[in-house]
Amino acid sequence: MDERRTVRVSKYLAKHLRHQPERIGLAPDAAGWVEIDALIAAAADHGFPFTREELDHVVAANDKRRFAVEGTRIRASQGHTIPVDLQLPPAVPPAWLYHGTVARNLDAIRAEGLRPMNRHAVHLSADRETATRVGARRGRPVVLSVDAGAMHRDGHVFRVSANGVWLTDAVPSRYLRFGDGRG
């Protein structure tokens, strides 16, 4: 499977597992799972056929591990805009987590902190490199440091998805460090 096809199938899966399953007639369960056979059939019925082998390749080759397969089911690991309960248990975060963004968002972030926007949770990275890649999708990246240790001590709940993305409801600005350092 060539890289262009891998990217197209991955984007199709993300769109329909995270955001618009109803558009192709899918009805995920409460945790976001759909039957793989139903997904493949729905995609074919809506003009985007792919094989089980292509799906397996996309799941295995995706460096961000965006999708999880469990038996005969698949779901997006996080990033949903549809109602889902990923059933992730609370987890103790590392002392620092990171968030990639771009400069044009900084004034709003300083004023309001990090909010989930149209997603269910704020997404945080365990390392600066990943946060840099995330921020670079929208332009020149700016990496914010999140004092996750202090947030956790203050009662904020964190969860970690199957692909290592840390999730929390919001990050108040007092827990953010702007610039290259933590302080």
TrEMBL record:
SUPFAM superfamilies xrefs: ADP-ribosylation
Pfam hit, one: PTS_2-RNA
Give, as one word, the top-level EC class: transferase
Q: What keywords appear on the UniProt entry? A: NAD, Transferase
Superkingdom in the source lineage? Bacteria
Q: Which GO terms describe its biological process?
A: tRNA splicing, via endonucleolytic cleavage and ligation
Known EC number(s)?
2.7.1.-
**By its UniProt entry, which Gene3D superfamilies does this protein fall under?**
3.20.170.30, RNA 2'-phosphotransferase, Tpt1/KptA family, N-terminal domain
State one molecular function term (GO): tRNA 2'-phosphotransferase activity
Q: Give the InterPro entries listed for this entry.
A: Ptrans_KptA/Tpt1 (IPR002745), RNA_2'-PTrans_C (IPR042081), RNA_2'-PTrans_KptA (IPR022928), RNA_2'-PTrans_N (IPR042080)
| Task performed by this protein | Removes the 2'-phosphate from RNA via an intermediate in which the phosphate is ADP-ribosylated by NAD followed by a presumed transesterification to release the RNA and generate ADP-ribose 1''-2''-cyclic phosphate (APPR>P). May function as an ADP-ribosylase.
Similarity remark: Belongs to the KptA/TPT1 family.
Query: This protein is called what?
Result: Probable RNA 2'-phosphotransferase
